TrEMBL record:
It comes from Deinandra increscens subsp. villosa. The keyword Repeat applies. InterPro entries: RUP1/2, WD40/YVTN_repeat-like_dom_sf, WD40_repeat_CS, WD40_repeat_dom_sf, WD40_rpt. WD repeats lie at residues 213-253. It comes from the Eukaryota. This is Uncharacterized protein. GO terms for biological process: response to UV-B. Gene3D superfamilies: YVTN repeat-like/Quinoprotein amine dehydrogenase. Keywords: Repeat, WD repeat. The keyword Repeat applies.
Amino acid sequence: MNHPNQPPPSSDQEERPSPKFEWDFYVSAVVPSSTTGGHISDTLGVIEVNSSGTLFATGGIARKIRLYSLDSSPPSCKFNICTPAKLSSLKWKPWSAGKTMGSADYDGVITEYDLETQMPVFERDEHSGRRVWSMDYSHWDPVVGASGSDDGTLQIWDPRHDGGKCVGTVQFGTPVCCVEFSPFGGALIAVGCADKKAYIYDVRNLVHPVAIFNGHQRTVSYTRFVDDRTVVTSGTDGCLKMWDVEDQRLIRTYRGHTNQKRFVGLSIWRSQGLIGCGSESNQVFVYDKRWGEPIWVHGFVAEGGAASEHGFVSSICWSQQVEDDECTLVGGGSDGVVKIFTGKRKALTTV
């Protein structure tokens, strides 16, 4: 039986240029687990920072959406929303002024919540009760959403129609682990599947993919846009890969973290091309998109705590605030602990 934070079951070689360490990172805040001593029942499956970098939300096994202020130190929990099922995905709804959040759960349900009333305002259940691993909102048509499920489908849906009418479907015949619309306003969507492949589709024509990336040796668990023509994928073969969408070619492979069976998180700080991911070694890894080796690694142990034999970093999210010399990364662990990391560019770097 799969671990509840584990992708469906489904390694390449490249020279590793030496990275140039241009950034210093440090832990700026720690949010302890809500369970005594931290426990797998509070595993964080997803963290999402809002567009202004002032709030972040967490979700996971505990069946709660927790909303925190990122401006306070330590980050304060503003409120909890109890959910009927374990959560696999959260997304802030674009152009909702931070007032609406979508969620996907293990019962196959997509729910939108009004964060002011803390009440659900929309629900759809069109994946036959099969676990929905990932959901996202389009930045091209900000109302339209997408979801990928264990039922082997990518579904595009519109909540303006009764019940969130499905306006497009792609049948993969294998679990769909990740969906992400291009955050740059185009009509592209990236999809990662248990068939070891990632796909790029134009949502206006779902008959044929724009690109197919076939390079991972196991399940593709995450897909993330770096810019409007570049995508990073994460696989349970223990590597990340960056692809050129237009040329459909592999640009670079990133290795260092450990990932063989679980979702460990993947996020891109698009302003400066930094890639963050978790690891089954219970560490946070940061890569610069220019180099295949990590530029920073941090052991994810609660302050004053002992390392967990089975602990792993399960969720990662960058704040997308556009600053040249400072950044914020939020990471969550399988024990429910959240750490806030601040990165500062070094004053002087050598070439």
